[in-house]
């Protein structure tokens, strides 16, 4: 490693990486506790996150529902009992959080969400409010390497704007870096959801679990970039047709559930049906020919969709990757198993490895509850010391991909192949032989990247995303191999 490339060094007692609901909630409670911290994002504005795109429908079970919700999340989603117990036994924090922020909320079928004229804008309201109450986040800094020491962690960032490497030593690291659904070719996520921190945490001793568990959402428009909420989908009365208007979905049971906006228990069956249509190269449309036009326009307005998506009384739909549920294993304090002083919150945590991996509204609930628990634990038990090793033990391999001169390595071509493969891996539950084959191919491609792809600025960021994408794909394969062995 060329030491002179690292041009800035900092110390902070607590470092939060990520400015979604999870990172901002930790920052909010640390600010309330008068603690010093630094909060960083790789994007050029702190609002660029999945949390900002979200409706922020937040699960808050009533006192007598808590046990059932805990058991359901363990049985159907494969959640870890101590973690999920901590989440729901502390879910009273959520109401206090909304009230402290002065955000009016409405009750939903499973919790609460910010009151908004457009239903899908709840996340924006929460994030905007939190950003006014915390330290100014530092932007454009990608976490590219971690190293553990006795008293904390050294984190290396690349600043895409100033073209500098920045090393930050911290006593407590909080990873709030979200999931990795952004690595799939069809996804509705913010582009930052690419999973680098999962891989970096593993390299310093964390365990990853359930990485093949991802949630594919059945109703998306604009080639996967935006999901349609159930209130709009129900206007089709569950009629899904092809280009010629021929009925594709023939199961009345499923159609009825879609019509009543009560299909969540049947998502697996709906996705299986959609996958068959895709295999047969049939485009799918929601048929709105019988829907009342005024009511439809009213729904579009309420749920924040444009009426322009309706063509010939139909909306073209595709399934899309909505969130990832695999992640970094933590204990009930959200501290990484095997790694003291490193916390993980939000979608980067391991949520579950069965079915959809978590239940609706869990993401925001978890970000808020663990935000408070992490901040309080560090505040009450924190031991701070500025002594740290002046240099990395090993040169980070991510720095080998950096060069002041951009070359013409075809990053986009490799990225397209990788993101399509990731869709295939999770859709088909491949057998052992193709998995081994894919693994070998992934390793070969990754070696090519290490040998040949070079750049700086935005291009370096793209190379890093691709490089880490191969690791994420490899983790998905290893998880699938484990599942195959247990069959
Ligand atoms: C359209 C949509 C609607 C949704 N609706 C709901 C809902 O109603 N209710 C619900 O509970 N959930 C919902 N979800 C899911 C929920 O939004 C996410 O699971 C949740 O917001 C994740 O929050 P987070 O803070 O963990 O991560 P994110 O909000 O994804 O934020 C991650 C942050 O980490 C930063 N980051 C990532 N990697 C690095 C790196 N290497 N270096 C530096 N910074 C990095 C990113 O830039 C970003 O700031 C929805 C998701 C989508 C996409």
From TrEMBL:
TM region positions: 12-30
KW Oxidoreductase (keyword) present: yes
InterPro entries, per database record: FAD-dep_OxRdtase_2_FAD-bd, FAD/NAD-bd_sf, SdhA/FrdA/AprA, Succ_DH/fumarate_Rdtase_cat_sf
Enzyme Commission (EC) number: 1.4.3.16
GO MF terms held by the record: L-aspartate oxidase activity
Keywords on record: Flavoprotein, Membrane, Oxidoreductase, Transmembrane, Transmembrane helix
Top-level taxon in the UniProt lineage: Bacteria
Sequence ranges assigned to domain FAD-dependent oxidoreductase 2 FAD-binding in this UniProt record: 14-342
Pfam families reported for this sequence: FAD_binding_2 (PF00890)
Alphabetical list of Gene3D superfamilies matching this protein: FAD/NAD(P)-binding domain, Succinate dehydrogenase/fumarate reductase flavoprotein, catalytic domain
Name of the molecule in the record: L-aspartate oxidase
Species for this entry: Paenibacillus brasilensis
